[in-house]
Amino acid sequence: MGFARDFGLRINVAQLLKGPTGAVRRMDLYEDITRIDDELSIQSPLAGSLTVIRTADGVLVTASLDATTELECCRCVTPFAAPVRLEIEEEFHPSVDIHTGARLPVLDTEEAATTIDEQHFLDLAEVVRQAIFLAQPMHPLCRGDCAGLCSQCGKDLNTERCQCVADSVDTRLEVLKQLL
Ligand SMILES: [Zn+2]
Ligand SMILES: [Zn+2]
User: From ligand 2's centre to the CA of 158, what distance in Å?
Assistant: First the structure.
């Protein structure tokens, strides 16, 4: 698994942490995330806007982000570009006290992705990575009426015709003729 740390998805929240609860910072995002995960084929930069709000315990990130990933159609097995919309709402917690620099209690590994590091950066990479996986359809379709592959000869019925369907219709007609 693993995730890279240099996507430009690291955000310095030092000023915000020094501010009062409720302080807000807004920013636009336009980042190359093609290397965010080996299993994902990202076709566009991650784009959108995000808001970071100072909370009592840390900062809350809310973001609406768009990207394009390459998926494989579950019917015809052809890769196609699919837009994904990520709605992110995640609270990040500091690992050191912003005023004293004192270490705060160590969080377990599950919370590592939402921990603000000692330099007061939060890293959206893992949250974004997980959101992309969650946003992917269980049964991706290249288009709603994808004809899929012929179950008998395996040809892509979107691009070519095969004789399999015609043959079975003929067989049925033969049966009908014999009945008559
Ligand atoms: Zn398809
Ligand atoms: Zn066929």
Answer: 12
Q: Identify whether the C-beta of residue 38 lies closer than 8 Å to the C-beta of residue 56.
A: no
Kindly list the domain boundaries of the chain, sorted by start residue.
Answer: 10-144, 147-180
List, for residues 68-87, the tens digit of each pLDDT value. 999 999 999 999 999 999 99
Residues forming beta bridges with residue 48, ordered by sequence position: 29, 65
How far does CA 175 lie from the centroid of its chain?
A: 52
**Nearest ligand to the CA atom of 80:** 1
Burial of 73 (0-12, 13-18, 19+ CB in 10 A): buried
Ligand nearest to the CA of 164: 2
pLDDT digit string (tens) for 89-117? Answer: 999 999 999 999 998 886 665 578 899 99
Measure 146 CA to ligand 1 centroid, in angstroms: 5
Strands 79-94 and 115-116: parallel
| For the chain, percent of residues with pLDDT exceeding 90 | 77
Residue 169's pLDDT band (cuts 50, 70, 90): low
Q: What does the block give as tokens for 71?
A: 């998926």
